[in-house]
Specification:
alpha+beta, 4 helices, 288 residues, five-stranded mixed β-barrel, two-stranded antiparallel ribbon
Length: 288
């Protein structure tokens, strides 16, 4: 079990929803209870709801919080992150934080994970929908149909577990996988059923039992800086999306334990050699 993580110092942690509702060209049908919105809209999204994406933590953005040349900055830049898959549930395009007309708008998206198995908790055992193509027999709900056909067989679309991302880098592609409106509406129906259950159960287990397993699987109240790829075939961690939170937790703990005045290597700095830089397990390279 991983500990619950508060918004970390270097991870763009700031708010429970969009800075404003500008950016909504369609209010998400389930989102009004969780995300504030008003009637302001923009012409289009770069990443519309219903889009499948690959994503990873943007370690370059995290590293910018620390002095150039410091061991902390260099270690964060070399931190090994995986590339995961999810479907965009809500997408907000917000005005740039500066008055420079050349600055790009801030883009924030809520993503629900896609995995090779159901969510890793008994309470969430039915919080998923199959994605076609699938070999699973006797499904109670028809599998989600994507356009074009999903590139992998027997994938699970998680309906209550996900994350919130601040898109810092976007890699476009001519090949984009998506849900058509009718299929996206079916997914939203399941989200409306399952998400409140996750929130209530996670709160109970955290406050009464001291167990934060479910709490860390729900969409957080802060954005994580992310690199996004429209072609999901680039993902290398498409089976175990919960590993995303392992990376977030390890990296956040490291950031929180190293202050901004850490400008040179020290005895408590994280050590990493060239061989370890290719490691896939974050815990294997973080040594205090």
């Amino acid at each position: 079990m991983l500990p619950s993580m508060e918004p970390p110092s270097g991870m763009n942690a700031s708010h429970a929803g969009p800075h404003s509702a500008s950016g909504l060209s369609r209010a998400p049908s389930y989102g009004s209870a969780y995300f504030p919105n008003d009637s302001n809209t923009v012409a289009q999204w770069r990443i519309p709801p219903g889009s499948f994406i690959a994503f990873s933590i943007d370690t370059s953005s995290v590293a910018q919080q620390y002095p150039v040349g410091s061991a902390t900055r260099e270690n964060i830049q070399r931190f090994p992150v995986g590339r995961y898959v999810g479907v965009v549930i809500t997408s907000y395009t917000l005005p740039a934080d500066t008055e420079d007309p050349e600055d790009e708008p801030v883009e924030e998206i809520t993503v629900h994970f896609v995995g090779g198995s159901p969510p890793p908790a008994n309470a969430l055992s039915d919080h998923w929908m199959a994605i076609s193509p699938t070999t699973q027999p006797s499904l109670q709900t028809p599998p989600l149909q994507t356009k074009p056909l999903f590139p992998w067989q027997d994938r699970y679309q998680w309906t209550s577990c996900g994350t919130r991302l601040h898109v810092r880098q976007l890699h476009e592609s001519s090949l984009k996988f998506r849900l058509e409106e009718e299929e996206f509406a079916r997914l939203e129906d399941h989200i409306m059923r399952d998400l409140p259950q996750l929130v209530a159960t996670a709160e109970y287990e955290k406050s009464v039992m001291g167990d934060t397993t479910l709490d860390r699987l729900k969409v957080p109240e802060y954005c994580l800086p992310a690199v996004v790829w429209r072609d999901i075939r680039t993902a290398d961690r498409r089976d175990e999306p919960a590993e995303f939170w392992n990376e977030v937790t390890v990296l956040a703990e490291y950031c929180d334990s190293h202050t901004e005045d850490c400008s040179s290597p020290s005895a408590d700095a994280m050590e990493m050699d060239e061989d370890e830089s290719e490691a896939k397990d974050p815990d294997s390279i973080l040594v205090e």
